[in-house]
């Protein structure tokens, strides 16, 4: 069958049937970039006879990778023998499983998650460097190391550039952290990008092997690549030069995680012989939604500039909604979903998505939907794999898989309680360090270690024997992973301990059941010789991994967005970041309030404000049929309500495309309460009403400093934002460290009264003070 590109328009076709040489598809949201990319893969295979094993396609989330694989599979009508389609991280794991020994790791390495990383850094700061954890929060140190890694800055180079006290501590921690990872035969998440680059740079024959194999590289969402990913691509593509990337500079939203928008803006410079294809037709959204999106993004200065038009009808207007507070907002959204479904029998819950800027907002939304009995799915938030009991069980499994996984050992050494105290663990760690053996091996000898006595002297060797038994079982043929896990959680005492916890323990036991079901799934796929899994095995080379290692590798890679299952009927909720690349008929963007979206800290830097606007653009362009922009007049932060003004982003949405609605609760209120849109004039007086005149402006109003109300002005971002609240420890560039005593004002005007350790109390305007959080780590 000749391959058919007739489902593409001429420009899309031109890109999809591009054969050799570098090419960039630069185009706005919904213009078919991802469709072009998958079409080109099938065209290469079906029309040009390219060996599927020579194709490497990369994207950013497992969800997107899964969809891509599915699309290619259905277009080709057969399996993707040998083709690699995955995230940068999963491809990094594959490369390392095969070639890690060249860097000094064994192929059964562990991938550390954020908790493991923080625990490790904590130990280095406290035990090795003997520094104060309060002054040097592990999470802050870790994010500095992570940023350095994503820039491909190694420990030595980092140390050379360190020029303040904080950076010097980071410089002390960084090499120790790397050494500890290596001793534990582990990589952290960033290493999955950095170590393959190191491998390719230092082993020319390995580089050549990969270059020879992967003649065709394709990258979706190219605008979000960071330095490490960029260098990885440059190395891999250097020989064949068949680098095909698609992206949209207007959707670059990961600057805060090191993504460099210049990677897309400079593509032509990097590859002077490159072709650029622009797609200008949007196939996703109604004309009203697209018009609004175009207008919103036109406020940004730093962009290439693109046209995006549609043949679609105008469609419904965009609805701006004014709610009283966050629970009113949630109730309104839930009722609106019900009303829409009552109107149109073809709709189901999965056609609706609720987006928000910060994870913290999900809770109120969840409660609102739960009250209405409406099934929903939170993508992100407290992820399944981050729950305590799940992590405990996984730590046991990791230790079974890899006897040198010291972090896993430390996590479960006394979980459930078996009478092993901190002192014994410290002694054990000293013994292990002296002999340069893993903690688990040291535990076997605990009976004869000085300073370990009584219960611990008995319990530690028992723990070691328990793990040893399951490690032996795991290597036996015919032992089923789910069975092994079930027995392990029983015999370790985890299950009994959870049962003893009462009702809460029940939910946790259900989570363990879910985990076991996940293990069973991997086991089943292995027995059925699931082709995709077989391919993974094949790609892993001689070191054919056990089900256990496969499962652990899978768990380490599951990102937030993977929980989004398009077939289950439920309303989806997620952060705007997680929504990238997805589309839904009905989209609600909630919390459209100044200081929340855009986040208040974005006002510090024009670039940050532009990134927030791009995030808004991403949100708007997820909508196919209908967009709702909801804001609340006040919102709870910690124990208090704060008055909120509508987001300035709303002003960039043209009025002739919108209609305004108020929730019943707003309508009930006296007319003095209902503020018409875009009349900010009464904002100050509202604020005065709340705070009482002058006292809102710092200093004047003395609150009880001991009242730790958790009052929160800034919002914790999904990943990185420090939250500023009373009692928080912060660092100021000139005044040094201090404790926040009082927060006043709102929006651009938030002021913080801070008791600095060195210079005493000062009041600073947060927007200009460039504060860094020191408290965020626990
Ligand atoms: N030529 C076409 N004819 C009909 N529908 C199309 C065409 N091209 C793309 N589409 C549809 O338009 C929608 C958007 O396409 P796609 O997701 O590939 O866009 P995108 O550019 O990757 O968007 P984003 O920037 O949000 O990732 C999809 O539902 C896709 O199937
Ligand atoms: Mg896309």
Automatic annotation (TrEMBL):
One of its GO terms (molecular function) is ATP binding. Residues 660-743 are annotated as: Disordered. One of its GO terms (biological process) is recombinational repair. Residues 669-684 have a biased composition (Polar residues). Transmembrane segments: none annotated. Residues 287-581 form the UvrD-like helicase C-terminal domain. It catalyses: Couples ATP hydrolysis with the unwinding of duplex DNA by translocating in the 3'-5' direction; ATP + H2O = ADP + phosphate + H(+). It comes from Longimicrobium terrae. Its EC number is 5.6.2.4. The keyword Membrane does not apply. This is DNA 3'-5' helicase. PROSITE patterns: UVRD_HELICASE_ATP_BIND, UVRD_HELICASE_CTER. GO terms for cellular component: cytosol; DNA helicase complex. ATP binds at residues 27-34. Keywords: ATP-binding, DNA-binding, Helicase, Hydrolase, Isomerase, Nucleotide-binding.
């Amino acid at each position: 069958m000749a391959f058919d590109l007739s489902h593409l328009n001429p420009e899309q076709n031109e890109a999809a049937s591009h054969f050799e040489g570098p090419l960039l598809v630069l185009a706005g949201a919904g213009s078919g970039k991802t469709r072009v990319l998958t079409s080109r893969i099938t065209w290469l295979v079906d029309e040009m006879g390219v060996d599927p094993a020579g194709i490497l396609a990369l994207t950013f989330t497992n969800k997107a990778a899964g969809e891509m694989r599915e699309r290619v599979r259905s277009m080709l009508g057969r399996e993707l023998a040998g083709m690699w389609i995955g995230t940068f991280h999963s491809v990094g794991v594959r490369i390392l499983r095969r070639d890690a020994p060249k860097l000094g790791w064994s192929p059964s390495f562990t991938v550390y998650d954020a908790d493991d990383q923080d625990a490790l850094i904590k130990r280095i700061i406290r035990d090795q460097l003997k520094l104060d954890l309060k002054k040097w929060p592990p999470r802050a140190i870790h994010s500095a190391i992570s940023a350095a890694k994503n820039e491909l800055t190694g420990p030595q180079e980092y140390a050379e550039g360190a020029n303040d006290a904080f950076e010097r501590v980071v410089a002390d921690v960084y090499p120790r952290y790397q050494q500890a990872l290596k001793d534990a035969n582990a990589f952290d998440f960033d290493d999955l990008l950095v170590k393959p680059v190191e491998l390719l740079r230092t082993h020319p024959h390995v580089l050549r092997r990969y270059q020879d194999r992967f003649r065709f590289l394709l990258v979706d969402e190219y605008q979000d690549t960071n330095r490490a990913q960029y260098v990885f691509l440059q190395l891999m593509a250097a020989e064949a030069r068949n680098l095909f990337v698609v992206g949209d500079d207007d959707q670059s939203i990961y600057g805060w995680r090191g993504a460099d928008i210049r990677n897309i803006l400079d593509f032509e410079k990097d590859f002077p012989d490159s072709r650029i294809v622009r797609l200008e037709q949007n196939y996703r959204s109604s004309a009203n939604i697209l018009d609004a999106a175009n207008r919103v993004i036109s406020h940004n200065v730093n962009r290439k500039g693109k046209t995006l038009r549609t043949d679609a009808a105008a469609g419904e207007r965009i609805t701006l909604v004014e709610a009283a507070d966050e629970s009113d907002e949630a109730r309104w959204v839930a009722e609106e979903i019900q009303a829409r479904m009552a109107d149109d029998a073809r709709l189901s819950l999965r056609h609706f998505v609720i987006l928000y800027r910060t994870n913290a907002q999900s809770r109120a939304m969840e409660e609102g939907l739960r009250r209405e009995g409406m099934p929903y799915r939170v993508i992100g938030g407290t992820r399944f794999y981050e729950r305590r009991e799940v992590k405990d069980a996984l730590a046991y499994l990791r230790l079974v898989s890899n006897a040198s996984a010291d972090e896993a050992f430390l996590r479960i050494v006394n979980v459930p309680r078996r009478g092993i105290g901190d002192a014994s663990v410290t002694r054990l760690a000293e013994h292990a360090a002296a002999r340069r053996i893993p903690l688990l091996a040291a535990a076997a000898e605990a009976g004869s270690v000085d300073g370990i006595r009584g219960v611990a002297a008995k319990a530690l060797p028992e723990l070691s024997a328990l793990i040893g038994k399951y490690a032996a079982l795991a290597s036996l043929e015919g032992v089923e992973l789910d069975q092994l896990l079930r027995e392990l959680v029983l015999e370790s005492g985890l299950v009994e301990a959870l049962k003893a916890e009462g009702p809460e323990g029940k939910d946790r036991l259900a989570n363990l059941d879910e985990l076991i079901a996940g293990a069973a799934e991997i086991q089943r796929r292995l027995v059925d010789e699931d082709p995709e899994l077989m391919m993974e095995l094949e790609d892993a080379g001689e070191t054919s991994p056990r089900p256990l290692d496969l499962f652990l590798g899978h768990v380490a890679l599951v990102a937030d967005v993977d929980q989004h299952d398009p077939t289950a009927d439920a309303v989806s909720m997620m952060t705007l970041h997680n929504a990238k690349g997805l589309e839904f008929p009905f989209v609600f963007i909630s919390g459209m309030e100044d200081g929340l979206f855009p986040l208040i800290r974005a006002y510090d830097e024009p670039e940050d404000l532009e990134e927030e606007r791009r995030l808004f653009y991403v949100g708007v362009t997820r909508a196919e049929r209908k967009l709702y922009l909801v804001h609340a007049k006040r919102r709870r932060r910690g124990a208090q309500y704060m008055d909120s003004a509508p987001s300035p982003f709303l002003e960039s949405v043209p009025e002739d495309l919108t209609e305004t609605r108020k929730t019943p609760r707003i309508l009930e209120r006296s007319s003095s309460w209902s503020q018409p849109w875009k009349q900010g004039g009464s904002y100050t007086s509202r604020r005065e009403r709340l705070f009482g005149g002058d006292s809102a402006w710092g200093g004047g109003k003395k609150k009880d400093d001991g009242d730790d109300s958790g009052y929160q002005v800034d919002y914790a971002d999904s990943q990185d934002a420090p939250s500023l609240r009373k009692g928080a420890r912060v660092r100021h560039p000139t005044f040094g460290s201090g404790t926040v005593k009082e927060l006043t004002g709102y929006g651009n005007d938030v002021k913080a009264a801070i008791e600095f350790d060195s210079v005493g109390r000062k009041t600073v305007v947060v927007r200009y003070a460039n504060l860094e959080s020191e408290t965020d780590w626990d």
